[in-house]
Sequence to fold (304 residues):
Amino acid sequence: MSTKVNHADISDNVFEPNTLDDEDDWKDIEPDNVVASFISFSGNTRFRRLEEFFVDAKENHGIDLIEMKKLHDLDTFGMIKLINYVRTQVNRGVFRPDLSPQNFLEGEKYLKPVIEDDAILYSIDDIFDFSGSGKEVKSLADRLAEAAVTLDEVHQVVKENKQMREQVVYYRSALQRTFLEKMELQERSLHLPSGQSVNHDESAAFAREIVDDDSHYFSSYAYNDIHEMMLQDKVRTDAYRDFIYDNKSLFAGKVILDVGCGTGILSLFCAKAGAAKVIAVDNSAIIDKAREIVFENGLGDTIQ
Fold:
């Protein structure tokens, strides 16, 4: 669809010079948000960020621009010469040029840009700012190594979390199994064989035992399963051990009371940390196993 223009409607002074010279009537045809593109020394890659250019120069050409600036105290002209020198050498096939200062600082040969509108030459001040900031230009290998360490730490946390969940499930299962076994024994004791008399004192004690929930709690620790699970919890056991051994001054020459000692593992740690005496107590049959363990470790004189 075309539109006709009536020439009579066009004012004679539309193209008067004074209207063309008015700068307010002109609009900047270039956008304000132009992003510089840094061309690599090899010329086959463009970077949006100055740091990426630094990394490429260091990895592919062995050139640390920040270090070169500091090492030779290069000013703006020195940096321009260095960059043009490197570009010239790379164009000649020398991908890791000799960076001795005499190769590029003398004369004005390398003040002439090797490529037109080289963005890196317009960013010398940014290089100086980067140099003064103390930031480290890390290679891709270094950054990947750091990422790998971080990823390994995440995997370790996930693994430990999974182990803890499995241990909680096992712990609950062990408690439930122990409790059910106890209840089964109690139920069988209620059904006495015919002709057998009932001891009222034992019945009363049995009744109190059923009411007393603590008895089930303590009896649940009489079996090896629950203690095996706790001892195999490496994070938990190592944490106790490391704290005691790293703070021996808190235990050396002291009398330690280990309430609910279980197999006596913490009592052993305290004794080896220099405790004068360790009194280990437990309200379950596991105390017998603890005595054996203490004896086998030759600490019977310290742990009671």
Summary: The CA atoms of residues 49 and 73 lie 24 Å apart. Residues 1-21, 25-31 have pLDDT under 50 and may be disordered.
